[in-house]
Amino acid sequence: MKNLREKIENYKPYNEQEEKDKQVILKYIDTFDDVLTRNNEFGHFTASSWVVNKEKTKVLMIYHNIYKSWSWTGGHADGETDLLGTAIRELKEETGAKNVKVLDDDIFSLEIICVNGHVKRGKYVSSHVHLNLTYLLEVDENETLHIKEDENSGVRWVNIEDVEKVSNEKWVVENVYNKLNKKLEKYRGK
Q: Rounded to an integer, what distance in angstroms lies between the CA atom of residue 107 and that of residue 97?
C-alpha cells in the first residue's frame, strides 16, 4: 500500500477536480485499512483504462450492463496494489484483447466516481464511491475482441470526438472522458 500511496502523492493533478480528488483519496488511504477491497462499502479502489488505437484517434469501449451505457474498461482492485495490472487484467477480461501496450507506466488520471446502488449477481450493492486510477493503454484496432456477457453486451471502437455522443453518463463524460481526451493530445505524434 505504501508504494501505491507514493504514486498517488507524486501524481501531478491536471485540474481542480483531480487536485481535490487526490486529497480525498490520500485521506481515505490514511483513514481506512481496507480501501483495496469491496469490504469497504463506502469506497474502494478501482482501475480503469483509456484504451486507444495506434493513431490515438479511437477509444475502445464496452457497453456496460449495469450503467446501460458505453463506458471505458476497468474494475475493482480486489486486494491488488498494482492498479496498472488491474487495469490491464480488466481490459483483457472485458474485451478479449490479448496484445496490450502500456503507453505510460504512470497514472494517467485519477477521479472519485459515485456509483448508485444496483443489483449485481443477484445481490444489492449500496451506493458508494470508486477511488479510481486510470491508465493509458493501446490495443491494435484489428485485434479480434469479444464481450464478457456477465458485465457487458458490446465492445467497439469509438472515434474520440464521438465518445460524448455514445455515453449517457453525463458526469463521467464531462469530467472524465473529456479530460482524458484532452490529456491524450500530448501523446499524439509519438
A: 21
pLDDT, tens digit, for every residue of 109-154?
A: 999 999 988 888 889 989 999 999 999 999 999 999 999 888 889 9
Q: What is the DSSP letter of 186?
A: G
Reported pTM: 0.94
Task: State the Cα angle at 121 between 116 and 124, rounded to 5°.
Answer: 40
What angle, rounded to 10 degrees, do the helices at 2-10 and 16-31 form?
A: 160
- CATH number for the region 2-187 comes to 3.90.79.10
Domain ranges of the chain: 2-187
Rg (CA), the chain: 16
Q: Is 37 helix (H, G, I), strand (E, B) or coil?
A: coil
Give the C-alpha separation, 49 to 56, whole Å.
14
Q: How far apart are the first and last CA of the chain?
A: 32
